[in-house]
Design brief:
Length: about 240
């Protein structure tokens, strides 16, 4: 359990190391985990990420980053006017910076759509692990990856919604990390017991229906009658 002001991508690594990934091939995540470090972590563990499409965060009226072509061989970017943005430095966050020539940009007719920099210099950043992020975007078009991500809203999101709406986890009722951790652990333990009980109940109904249909002797007296079992608002009739 981490604080609420910690980003999901920062708390991911500590939690991911605790998971048992022996039989796991695909990991489905939301857009909050779509970062180069998280994608690299998943690929290095031998799994494939299933992430959603994220819209470009460029301002209206400006060129998107996809309009600038990256040349892997020469390690540079090409702008829509086919001018080169050369590599200059790598900042502390692990992003490589590519800058244009202000002498060329000052005479460009698309300068207003490219940058608002006072020095008339376009700067593009690229993370050292951007290749993993780009590969995750390519996998998004595969049918298996796309179908796996669709299951996320049917499984994980339902658990979150159930915890928030029915178990008061939208806000914390206690102060202090130990008390909140105890409350959350107890609630999710009860939710797991509920899920296990429902699975066993469904398995019992399946076996009972099979026995009634096959008219076995121990249940021969029940075949002639209607057997109705109600659980809450659900009714089952044989």
């Amino acid at each position: 359990m981490v604080a609420g002001n910690v980003h999901d991508s920062q708390s991911f690594h500590q939690l991911y190391d605790k998971l048992d990934l022996k039989n796991t091939k695909i990991v489905a995540l939301d857009a909050g985990f779509k970062t180069p470090s998280v994608m690299r972590k998943i690929f290095m563990s031998g799994c494939l990420p299933a992430v959603p499409y994220t819209r470009p965060k460029t301002k209206d009226g400006f060129f998107r980053k996809s309009n600038y072509v990256y040349d892997e061989y020469f390690d540079c970017y090409l702008c829509p006017q086919n001018q080169i943005l050369k590599y200059t430095t790598t900042n502390r966050e692990g992003y490589r910076e590519y800058k244009s020539d202000p002498k060329i940009c000052s005479a460009c007719p698309y300068l207003s759509q490219c940058t608002l920099n006072k020095n008339q210099t376009k700067v593009i950043t690229r993370h050292l692990w951007s290749d993993f992020l780009e590969e995750a975007d390519h996998l998004r078009h595969i049918t298996l990856i796309r179908d796996t991500y669709k299951k996320r809203k049917e499984t994980i999101e339902r658990v979150f919604a159930d915890a928030k709406e029915r178990h008061c986890l939208r806000y914390t009722n206690y102060r202090g990390s130990p008390k909140v951790k105890f409350q959350v652990t107890l609630i999710f333990a009860c939710m797991n017991l509920k899920k296990m009980a429902m699975k066993k109940f469904k398995a019992f109904l399946f076996i009972l229906r099979f026995l009634l249909v096959s008219k076995l002797k121990p249940f021969s007296n029940l075949v002639e009658k209607d057997f109705v079992y109600s659980l809450g608002t659900c009714s089952y009739k044989f």
